[in-house]
Amino acid sequence: MLKYQNQTRLLVAVDCIIFGFDGNKLKILLIKRGLEPKKDHWSLMGGFVQPSESTDEAANRVLKQLTGLDGVYLEQLYTFSAKDRDPIERTISVAYFALIDIHQYEKQISEEYHAEWFQLDQIPELIFDHSQMVAMAREKLRYKAALHPLLFELLPAKFTLPLLQSLFEDVYETNFDKGNFSRKIISTGLLIKQKDKDKTNSKKGAFYYKLDKKHYKKNFHSVLKFIPNLNNHLEAET
Amino acid sequence: MLKYQNQTRLLVAVDCIIFGFDGNKLKILLIKRGLEPKKDHWSLMGGFVQPSESTDEAANRVLKQLTGLDGVYLEQLYTFSAKDRDPIERTISVAYFALIDIHQYEKQISEEYHAEWFQLDQIPELIFDHSQMVAMAREKLRYKAALHPLLFELLPAKFTLPLLQSLFEDVYETNFDKGNFSRKIISTGLLIKQKDKDKTNSKKGAFYYKLDKKHYKKNFHSVLKFIPNLNNHLEAET
DNA sequence: ATAGTAATTGTCATTTTTACATTTATTTTT
DNA sequence: AAAAATAAATGTAAAAATGACAATTACTAT
Asked: Nearest CA to A70 among A85, A59, A86?
């Protein structure tokens, strides 16, 4: 089976940075690590790549194990390969980031892993280089969401413009003018206005919208500039 | 040494997509593969990751081996991990893309590998999934160069605006208005005008410019929009 | 019926973009 | 030595977009 002579083989893992939005705050899902080393320390959900799978498949498997979810937004982020990143044995890790609708997530499944959602300003110390992975995922999310319709993946099928705006405001830690924001979103043509309203947050109520799936897929890669004064809100990118 | 029980270890390689600009056309550097399988077929330059190195270090090593160059622009692109991508033995490959000043490149070194520069519309059949890697690198280059001052890495220290424009025009396969182009570039504040001109292409001569290195590093991550009608020139992104 | 609230729509000055036109600096030709 | 040729550099203005702020609207609760 080993046909390239004299080459070292390495452990390959995947780790997932899983984002969710509870209607108020952007959060990531962390687990308490179940095996040594660093047992019971906070960690990203991950696992070793099996002989039968690609890293994409491994990441999807791991994500399903923890959340019960299939077919969610999952994107390869970066491969971490520092020689000593795992103290037990050399392992390279391909990091993925996922965006899920937090309400779809099945709690009972994740209890097995002692998983918890954390706000981004309250993330505990993480094992290995996982803090670096989280930082990079957050940067990438900010960068990409400013230019592409990404954050919709975090919302339920029906949502209001004020809810969308509060998500953007939390991601960019700033406030946007509501008039300009709604015009910009509407002008993308990505949303279909519904007949009904959400009246939990105001007396007037805010219309629900749904994604126009076709338009969304077709225009996902277009550069849209959702964010005014973009450069004030991005520090760096990957 | 093997401390995580019952896990499979895999070969890990790096492959480099090396871009250069000869003053006329954007090109990539390919080699004739020296070992079986697929000996003498066209291939990206690559190599196995050694126990002593990270993938970044491996990519830099491989790049230096082929070009003789140190400290060039090198960025991790994507990790390719399809189960059967290498027919001999399972190998995952971390692809990197490099931007070099083609005139710095030392030809005698690469003759050992039978390396040749190819225009992007004349790339031969490549081994394994290397064509896919090239396609992704090209997309990424287009995407990123539209928003960040990336293409300067392909030019010599002193260059003219018309040369820069011809590079942009080749990358995006289109023509730009020269007045608007030069204004946009100048307005970034990234360039320092020199006293001398290049008179090889016109009677009037075009002033040389140099990168303002400090400004360049500081503003590299700013979103600048170098390209008008951006969405007409990007198909997709990674 | 009225007041209160947040959603929605409106307005307009400012800035950016883009198409196209003119001027300028230099070399080559007459 | 003047004129023609060439491509670089600069100028112009209409159109589009952005962004700050104001007014109106639709509904609920008093």
From this structure: A59
